Structures are given as structure tokens and as C-alpha cells.
Amino acid sequence: MSDKRAGHSHGSLSIDQYAYGSAMRSWNPSFKIITAAVFLVCVIAMDRLPVSLLVLFFMALTVMAGGRLSPLRYLRLMAVPLAFIILGSIAVAFDFSLSRGGDYCLFLGFFYISATGKSLLEAGSLIVKAFSAVSCLYLITLTTPMGEIVGFFRKLHVPKLLVELMYMIYRFIFILYDSERKMTVAARSRLGYHSLKASWYSFGRIFSNLLVVSMRRAGAYYDALESRCYNGDLRFWEDKKPVRPLQVLWALALGALILALRLFVG
Amino acid sequence: MRETILEVSHLSYLYEGEHEALHDVSVSIKRGEQIAVIGSNGAGKSTFFLNLNGVLTPKEGAVIYEGQAVGRSRKELNRLREHVGIVFQDADSQIIASTVYQEAAFGPMNLGLSREEVKERTDRALRYMDLEAMKDRPPHYLSGGEKKRVSIADILAMKPEVIIFDEPTASLDPVNTAMLEEVLVKLGKEGRTLLVSTHDVDFVYRWAERVLVFEGGRILADGAPEEIFRDSQVLKKAHLKKPVLLEVTEFLVRKGLLGEGLYPHTVEELQKYF
What we know:
The structure holds two protein chains of two kinds.
Chain A: H1 2-6, H2 13-21, H3 29-46, H4 49-66, H5 71-78, H6 82-93, E1 95-97, E2 104-108, E3 111-115, H7 117-141, H8 146-155, H9 160-189, H10 196-227, H11 245-264
Antiparallel strand pairs in A: 1-3, 2-3
Helix pairs in contact in A: 3-7, 4-7, 4-11, 6-7, 8-9, 9-10
Chain B: E1 4-14, E2 20-30, E3 34-38, H1 45-52, E4 60-65, E5 68-69, H2 74-83, E6 84-87, H3 100-110, H4 115-128, H5 144-156, E7 162-165, H6 174-189, E8 193-197, H7 201-207, E9 210-215, E10 218-223, H8 225-228, H9 232-237, H10 244-254, H11 267-272
Parallel strand pairs in B: 3-8, 3-9, 6-7, 7-8
Antiparallel strand pairs in B: 1-2, 1-4, 4-5, 9-10
Helix pairs in contact in B: 3-4, 3-5, 4-5
């Protein structure tokens, strides 16, 4: 409901909205982040195709079923890193050389592209591993609003300056995004983008203007903070979200499955 | 007579090297007064408010809260800020946290209260502004009117004696403007001291019991609405329009349809005379 009203529903900001709407928001954020991180390490350190596949499916299923995110949205988000992952695996899968070689070989004018069965399998498992790692990170970002993630960093005793900067940057993204959108619409209504040259010009003006806007905003913000007894220490209310037995069971189940796979499949 | 809660004596404030933003302002505010602050943009209203709440400290003169001049120490300033709250004009420049609940709890958290007390105050403020249903939502996806309500809940949660609203109706639609007026009336009935800056003279005329007119960093006039708006000198100097209801009243008096000295502040009050 809120996405329509604010009109931010496109682009990477949608991740933010999904996090707020997630049914897994009531889970303890530290628990989610730590478990996801542990399984992320498992995937990377074990480097086994079955483990990667298992974690990938388990994480995807958790976010979709547990967090009530529609599969279509999940897959669309999974497609975001697709290009990077495929480009990265091409180098692993294929060999470029001036002489024939490998199990499969393609002659392209003056050089050969070749691949071996082993290299293709390696590339395949690399792709799965990468997606598996992404699925662990998505478990965090798609179910935990930014404020809670930053709250976790505070608990880890990340320096106060960094934590507060994260809060401020997060809040400012939306304010600057709004200002930028308004200015772009205003520029467009005056034919600011009718040609390439004009577009570059408008783009430049808008961004220099954004700097001025942010400076002014920062001043107003500071006044508002002070008026509410801000003492140089940003402290936010954090809801107590106890870890529930079922959630621990969920993590243990995945751990047990990974262990079983390692023991019986290898 | 009601006791004085907040007093400003011979206050001057200067913005970095520039012209004086406030010059020799003296005013005394009584507990429970409903005050409208009017005057053109740049007349010094916002600067006056920031001085009242200790965000800005006067160059000369003093702010006196409950009989005690407020010093410059953090402790004294925070005491003033706790008791005098400002709802800023632009809710987006005030809202800092990433959920509505955290936002309303921010002030009480800064007061160093216990967790239960913070929760109690935040819950009450959210209930007061009818925001309970959206307490877990992020403020950046709320509408303008909802953001305004959040920014008011922010201040209510601090339980201030005096609440200042800096141009609260700017950029609000009629529905939300009506909501805001209701809130102001309700707060007034509960005995809170309110200062509201606005450009809407009709609102001032029906709501305020006292009007401060700012012009060029000074207080040009201070009095009951019917005094202020009948003073043609003041209206001219401060570029103010006469409230429609006052015009109508004066017309009726001229036509002999209404007795002299009657100043109804609402249409309902006017109707009662007939």
C-alpha cells in the first residue's frame, strides 16, 4: 500500500520495502544475521556443489515461505547479480588459445575457444556457489530493515561514528532521492532533457543543486535533533525480539542437513 | 491570573555577521495561553522559536523558564528543550529514525528515561496522534499528513509544557489542516501552552487568544486578535489581511445589525447573536 503512495517502488529501493513488509521481520535481527553469515561461510569454505545447492534452496524457501515474499519478486532480485556471476564464470569455463585443445573446441577466425568437461562443471558449481552466497545475504537484506542491521553493527561495537553515519546516510538517501526526483521533473518540464547536450547540462545542475540542498537540510536536521535534547549520541529504541525455539530449530535443521550431505555424499 | 511560564527579555540574536535577526524582543507567556505568531517570511518567527527552545542562544537578553534565566550549560539548555518542544515546519527535516515507533521514542530516549517510561510515553503519544497502526512502518514511505502527525507525536512524547508549531499547515491538504486544528484545540483544552506560527489569519482569528506580530526582527504588536486585526497601522506594516469574519462583523455593526463591541471568533458564535 505504501509503495504506491510514495512512488519509490522501482529499483534497488524495493529491497528496502520488502524488508519492512517481510513476515520474518519479527525474528531477532542478530540471530538472522549471524546464522546467514555462518551458512555463507559454510558455502564458501566447504566449496561443494551439493552444499551450495542445499543452502540456496533452503534460504530461498525461507525468504519466500517464511518471509512471504512472492517467488516472482525473489527471482527478479536474484537476476540482479546474474550478469556479474555469468561474466565471472566465463573465464573459468572457457580457455582462449591459438591451438586446439579441450573436450569442446570452437575455431573463431584465428583463435580457439575451448572447454573441458571439468572446467564446465567447475564454472557451474561456481555459479551455484555464488547464488548460494547471494541467497544468504538476501535472507538478511530482504527480511531485516536497514535500521536493525545498523543496530546489529552497534552491538558488535563498530565505532559510533560509523554506526551513526550509517543511520544518517540511510535516512538521507530517501530525502536526496526525493529532492533529485522533484528537480528532475522540474527540469524535464522545461525541456531540460530535450537533447543530449541539454541532458548533461541539467544533470550537472541538478547534482550541484543537490549539494546545496543537502547542506541546508543538514543544518535544519541538526537544529531539530538539538531541539529534542540530542547530546551527540544517537540512541534509538530497539524492540526486544526474542529468538524463538522454532527459529533455532530452523537453523539447526539446515546445519544438520549440511552435515549429513558432507557425511553421506561427500 | 495565570502564572508566567516562559519569558523573553530584551532578546537579540544575530546570524553570523549578517543583519540582526531579532532585535530587543521582550515577551511574557502565561501557562495555558494559545498564542498565534504571525508576520511575513523572514520577520524572525523561526529564529524566535529556536531561541525559545535553546537551539539558538541569544546574543543579548535572556530566556526565562519558570522564573529561572536559562544559562548556556548543556544541562540548562536541555532542561529548556525538554519543557519547550518545537514541531518543525518540514517534517522531513525532523524525522530521523527508521520506524515511526523509534522516531517517537527518540526524544524520550534522549531524556535518559527508563525503558518502561520511554515505552509508556511513546505509546501514549502514538495513540494521541492515531499512529498506532503504523508504528512499525518506515517514516519515508508515509504521506505528508502522516509525517506531520509523526512529527507532532515526536514532541508529545517528550511531554513538554510549551509546544511550538512552526508553520504547521504549510504543505498540508485541507483534510490534514483540519486534523491539525483539531489537535491544537484538543491540546489547548488540556491546558498546554501553545505557540503557532502561520499565515492563515482566519485560523488565527478563530483559534488564538493572543497574537504576536513580528516585523523585521521585532515584535510589532502583541494583543488579543480583535485588537490586532482592527489596528490598520499594524495590518499595513506587517502586510496582513483582515480576517473575513472580522470584516463581516464590522460590516454588520456598520449596518446596525450587530451591537458594538461584540467580536465573535467563529461563525457559530456569530450565529448565536441572531
